[in-house]
Amino acid sequence: HIGYYSNNTADGSDWWKITTNEDGLLYVSFDANTAPGCYLHFYDTDAAKELGYVWVDGTKKGEFSFKLQPGTYYV
């Protein structure tokens, strides 16, 4: 959970790894029910190139979809 504080360190981000085994459409939907909200970023297989992002807050759900080749992607 974002913002968790322990050992003098705050957690400023969370990561999810998504692996696909074949070509297809990946749809990601995310709700953030607290202020001030957060960005949801989507990265390619090397976790370096950002493919897209969306702002999510208590009033707006974030969602995006991509046609992908097999591989591991990061949100």
Top keywords for this entry?
75 residues; mainly beta
Describe the structure.
Helix content is 0%, strand content 52%. It is mainly beta. β5 (38-43) and β6 form a beta hairpin. It is globular, with a radius of gyration of 14 Å.
What is this structure's SSE topology?
Elements: E1 5-6, E2 9-10, E3 17-20, E4 24-30, E5 38-43, E6 50-56, E7 62-68, E8 71-74
Antiparallel strand pairs: 1-2, 3-8, 4-7, 5-6
Would you summarize the structure shown here?
The protein is mostly beta strands.
Biggest pleated sheet? 2 strands, antiparallel
Mean pLDDT, to the nearest integer, reads: 81
Calculate Rg over CA atoms.
14 Å
Describe the global form: globular
Helix content: under 10%
Distance between the termini: 14 Å
> What is the percentage of strand-forming residues?
over 45%
Order of strands across the main sheet: 1-2
> Low-confidence parts, pLDDT < 50 over ≥5 residues?
none
Helical stretch count?
0
SSE arrangement, N to C: EEEEEEEE
Number of strands: 8
Determine the structural class based on helices, strands and strand pairing.
Answer: mainly beta
